[in-house]
UniProtKB/TrEMBL annotation:
Residues 340-410 form the ACT domain. InterPro entries: ACT-like_dom_sf, ACT_dom, AHAS_small-like_ACT, D-2-hydroxyacid_DH, D-isomer_2_OHA_DH_cat_dom, D-isomer_DH_CS, D-isomer_DH_CS1, D-isomer_DH_NAD-bd. This is D-3-phosphoglycerate dehydrogenase. It holds the Pfam family ACT_AHAS_ss. Pathway: Amino-acid biosynthesis; L-serine biosynthesis; L-serine from 3-phospho-D-glycerate: step 1/3. It catalyses: (R)-2-hydroxyglutarate + NAD(+) = 2-oxoglutarate + NADH + H(+); (2R)-3-phosphoglycerate + NAD(+) = 3-phosphooxypyruvate + NADH + H(+). Keywords: Amino-acid biosynthesis, NAD, Oxidoreductase, Serine biosynthesis. Its EC number is 1.1.1.399, 1.1.1.95.
Length: 416
């Protein structure tokens, strides 16, 4: 159970994978000066060594935060994923240790949608192959297999933030949009939801995937699904590499079953820009391969840097967990003149009454109390009228099923 006492300047923040400078600036402005900002991810052994004294970590899609890493992260208070996907984090391992995980659910949505739309047009015109030939001195001037987007059917799988944004953009260009989602979703514009994946695959000229990495989406597009797609149709995957069976896609492209593909995410991705990219899709005609840059625009990265660092600062200063992806969400008011106790515990009956009993026995006066739980943990926030020193921290630590205790002083310094 974590219980230490720290000043803001001692709170160690590790930012990996070239998280945008906007995050560093934001953290510095908020008084967090102990920041290590690295351009790459770290291999597991190095990360395990480094994370032992880290309070906040910021990552993107490449860093794997698994059980072994969390086990070593004795002081970790929160995780910031400077991206949308959180499949690289063992959310349960974080939860059971009382560590909230935050992400940026919308900041790169537009960037992905724009890229996919551009790719759909390029592929419909056979541009990758024509461009490649021209670079080699060839001249492939021909209208063969070259189509306008207007009147073609775009099938979107996963109609969430990115899928629905893509829907709006592509309709404005004249695409007819259909979509498949496991949830009934309000259609944008004239788009229509279809009843099954099979129906979407059979009707679309361009299929684009925008589902998260879940057990139910893993390898959801394989040989059987590709066989259902229209001859000469196009597949785009900017979701996760685990969604498409890449060998089946390569075979279909080689056999001329599909007219083209754009793939941004792969089952195995290089760990850094120096490592070789290996894929059965390399060298195939009319295939756009991009190095997981769907969300990599300067605009998106700057916004993500601000958004996620703000969430970390707010949690650190105030205890608010709104929009955490794994944690009970508590929206807390500012606490000027009050000290705030944070208590994270297993969600079992009786903990709240024990907390109140312990506080009362220690003569600690409660000004306000907030509680939120999920199936696994409870998160109680208690505002008290004065600095009780380590008395409050010690008292709360003795409550059974306690995972973590923190004190936030009214001037926002931190003990965690
Ligand atoms: N290539 C890149 O750089 C980026 C990739 N991504 C990926 O895109 C994914 C989607 O992002 P958002 O649109 O923001 O997520 P979202 O959560 O807003 O939308 C996902 C949609 O997929 C639906 N869905 C879930 N399981 C499904 C299934 N089995 N079949 C059909 N629909 C299903 C959900 O109901 C939801 O509507 C992210 O989870 C991330 O993995 C996100 C940003 C950048
Ligand atoms: O920018 C990144 O590293 C990953 C982008 C991504 O895939 C996401 O936001 O889920």
């Amino acid at each position: 159970m974590a219980k230490t006492s720290l000043d803001k300047s001692k709170i160690k923040i590790l930012l990996l994978e070239g998280v945008h400078q906007s995050a560093v600036d934001n953290l510095l402005n908020a008084g967090y000066t102990n920041i290590e900002h690295l351009p790459t991810s770290l291999d597991e052994a190095t990360l395990i060594e480094k994370i032992s004294d880290v309070h906040f970590i910021g990552i993107r899609s490449r860093t794997q935060l698994n059980e072994r890493v969390f086990e070593a992260a004795e002081k970790l208070v929160a995780v910031g994923c400077f991206c949308i996907g959180t499949n690289q984090v063992d959310l349960d391992a974080a939860l059971v240790r009382g560590i909230p995980v935050f992400n940026a659910p919308f900041s790169n949505t537009r960037s992905v949608a724009e890229l996919v739309l551009a790719e759909a047009i390029m592929l419909l015109r056979g541009i990758p192959e024509k461009s490649h030939r021209a670079h080699q001195g060839g001249w492939l001037k021909s209208a063969k297999n070259s189509h306008e987007a207007r009147g073609k059917t775009l099938g979107i799988i996963g109609y969430g933030s990115i899928g629905s944004q893509l829907s709006v953009l592509s309709e404005s260009l004249g695409f007819d949009v259909i979509y498949y989602d496991v949830v009934t979703k309000l259609a944008m514009g004239n788009a229509r939801q279809v009843a099954s994946l099979e129906e979407l695959l059979a009707r679309a000229d361009v299929v684009s995937l925008h589902v998260p990495d879940l057990a139910s989406t893993r390898w959801m597009i394989g040989e059987a699904e590709i066989a259902l797609m229209k001859p000469d149709s196009i597949l785009i995957n900017a979701s996760r590499g685990s969604v498409v069976v890449i060998e089946a896609l390569a075979e279909a492209l080689e056999a001329g079953r599909l007219a083209g593909a754009a793939v941004d995410v792969f089952p195995v991705e290089p760990k850094g820009n120096e490592e070789e990219f290996v894929s059965p899709l390399r060298g195939l005609a009319n295939v756009i391969l991009t190095p997981h840059i769907g969300g990599s625009t300067l605009e998106a990265q700057e916004n993500i840097g601000i958004e996620v660092s703000e969430k970390l600062v707010t949690y650190s200063d105030n205890g608010t967990t709104v929009s955490s992806v794994n944690f009970p969400e508590v929206a807390l008011p500012a606490h000027p003149g009050k000290h705030r106790l944070l208590h994270i515990h297993d969600n079992v009956p009786g903990v709240l009454s024990e907390i109140n009993r312990v506080l009362s026995e220690n003569d600690i006066n409660i000004l306000g109390q907030y509680l939120q739980t999920n199936e696994r943990i409870g998160y109680v926030v208690i505002d008290v009228d004065k600095d009780y020193g380590t008395r409050a921290l010690d008292a709360l630590s003795q409550v059974s099923h306690t995972k973590r205790v923190r004190v936030l002083y009214s001037e926002s310094s931190f003990q965690g």
